[in-house]
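To close the chapter, one final illustration. This time we ask the reader to focus less on the individual chains and more on the assembly as a whole: which components sit near each other, and how the overall shape emerges from the parts.
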Amino acid sequence: MTGPGQHDAERDQVLGAEHAEFALDDAAYLLGALDPERRSAFERHLARCQVCRDRVAEFGELPTVLARADSSAWQPEPPPDTLLPRLLRQVAASRRRRARRIAGLALAAACLLALLATGGVLSWQHAHQPRTLAMETVGPNSAGVHATVQLIPAGSATRVKLACGYPSHGSSYPYDHAVSYRMVIFNRRGDRFDLGSWTPQPDEDVQITRTSPWPRQNIGRIEVSDDRGQTVLRLRL
Ligand SMILES: [Zn+2]
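The assembled structure is written out below.
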């Protein structure tokens, strides 16, 4: 048989154990230093524990809490000299968590900015990358000759970058000697400007860069002719 007295004693024992667990949380609770989970656990304990309720009611504000930290007037278990260190540890831990959060956010922001900057530079480069334009072949002598052109603005002039490929010397090759080629450029009014000639070696691909006197928007067409003056490649702009 268990009488009401024994039941109360058991309940007190359970509450005492619980109180021992929460007895150090009152000051941190008042300072708002408990994490949410611990805070609601402490509040559940408060509802049951008169001792903790009284202490929380007594402690008005931080100075009081700290002033009471070494008071021996408190009832039972909590060794008073551990309250302040624990409080400070909790505050420090909360500060460290916040500092880590801020550092994390700052790092994320820095990464985002770096990504945006990189993306911006890449898209700027993409937008300003000169397009590679394929020249069309013209006439019977063009067999196998092919070229692309990039036009690169250079102040009021334009750099013309030509990449030219030649056929292997097969039966279709129309010449029986080393051919020289010449590049000429025309503006939109029809003025002609000679960009010079070159003689590729057999099977050689050639890259040449010459400067046109006109800005990009004034260029009408570019032509490559062989050494007989026959146009073999043309690019209309
Ligand atoms: Zn308690």
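Residues 71-76 have pLDDT under 50 and may be disordered. Residues 19, 22-23, 45, 49, 51-52 surround zinc ion (CB under 6 Å). With these observations in hand, you are ready for the problems at the end of the chapter.
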